[in-house]
Amino acid sequence: MRVAWAVAGSVLREVVRRKIFYGVVLFAVVMILLVPALPSSGVGVQVQLLREACLGLTALMAALLAILLGCSILPGEFERRTIYNTLSKPVRRSTYYLGKFFGLAITLFIVLAAVFAIMLTLIYAKFGLFNPGLGKAIFGIYLESLVLAALALLASIYLSPVPAFFTGVLFYVVCHVKADFLYRAMTNSANVPPLRAISAVFYYALPNLERFNLNETIAHSEQVFRVGAGTMLFLLGLAVVFAGALLLGGIGLFRRKEF
Prior knowledge:
Blueprint: H1 2-15, H2 19-34, H3 43-70, H4 73-80, H5 82-87, H6 93-127, H7 134-155, H8 161-187, H9 193-205, H10 215-219, H11 229-256
Helix pairs in contact: 1-6, 2-3, 2-6, 3-6, 3-7, 3-8, 6-7, 6-11, 7-8, 7-11, 8-9
């Protein structure tokens, strides 16, 4: 595992040298800071609007970062040919691959922790409220970003960054609409059987990323349902299963890839 963490550290060093990383994070932070300027009615509505908008922007930022970084880490190593020097040493490909994922996971954690602190400060400065409960929504966002990073990393093994990026975006969109769009396409008797069959395959094969979306519930002070420890553990289990399956698939493909 020491080798894996060393590889993870190299990912962190590489990420901080990328302009696109700072561009995405800075844009999201600026948009979050501008949210209080949006018009609204009462103070209660302002608080809910601020929380929901900030969490929505954070979720989009995390998804974009996870896909952008995940789809470019390995191709960058191939292009610079540094991967050949690393793998010529007694380093297992599985360890190297996991190290890349760990590096992405640490990067996303640091970014989301910083944005979480900014949100808490902004809400306290604006309304005098301290909302640590927002951390539940941030946790869901983080788990979703790990699944997206695992998918993007897998796609980048054989795809160049641009196709891998769009694969990640398509995965993100489909996995968020599957509960509604794919279910209706699968169960609608008016659709032709092949369409229903294809919809069923994607419906059951793809994870439902909407489960990780706690933004609206948390923004409205958990009025619909309480998000307790059981819910958080359930989401953690889902993320472990989804990301774990993608990592196993990625390791299998990475082992077979010829350099």
